[in-house]
Amino acid sequence: MFLFDGIMFLHILAAVIGLGAAFVFPVLSRAAKTAEQARHTIALFEKLALLPIAGSVGMLITGVSLLLLEPALLATGWFIASLFLFFAAQMLVIGVLPKSMRRQSAALEAHEGEGVPVEYRRISRQTARVEMVTHLLAVVLLAVLIFRPF
C-alpha cells in the first residue's frame, strides 16, 4: 500500500503543477495593456507552458502506474469518466491552445504600435472560451476523482 500511496502523492503533485500554471494563463493574458506587455506575456506563456506539459505527463505516467497496481479501477465508472475527462482536456491543451498562442504572437509581430492589436484581443477572447472549457473539464475531473460518484 505504501507504493500505491506514494504514486498517488506524485499523481496529485503533478496535477497541482500542471493545473496551477494553466489556471494562471487567462489572468496573464487579460493583463496586457500595451503591445510590449502582450509580447512579454507571450514570452512568459512560452516559459510557463512547460509546467502544464510536465504535469500532464506526470499525471499520465502515475495514473497508468496506479492502474497497473490496481487493475480493478477499470471496472469503476468514476475511473473511466476521469480518463475521458483527462483526455478531452488534453486534446484542447495540446491541440488548440498552442495554435492560438502562435496566432497571437504573429498578430503582435505584424503590429507596429503601442496599443494591443485588435487581432490579438480577438484571438484572446476565442482562446478564453477554450480555456474556460478546459478549466471546467479540470474542475469536473477533480470532483470525479475526489468524490467518486459512480
How much beta, percentage-wise? under 5%
Question: How would you state the average pLDDT, rounded?
Answer: 92
Element-level helix/strand string = HHHHHH
Number of DSSP E strands: 0
Gyration radius from CA atoms, angstroms: 18 Å
Q: What spatial form do the alpha-carbon principal axes imply?
A: elongated
Low-confidence stretches: none
State the separation between the terminal residues, measured CA to CA.
23 Å
Structural domain count: 1
Structure class: mainly alpha
Helicity, as a percent range: over 70%
In DSSP terms, counting alpha (H) and pi (I) runs of 4 or more, how many helices?
6
InterPro entries: DUF2269_transmembrane
Keywords: Membrane, Transmembrane, Transmembrane helix
Pfam families: DUF2269
Protein name: DUF2269 domain-containing protein
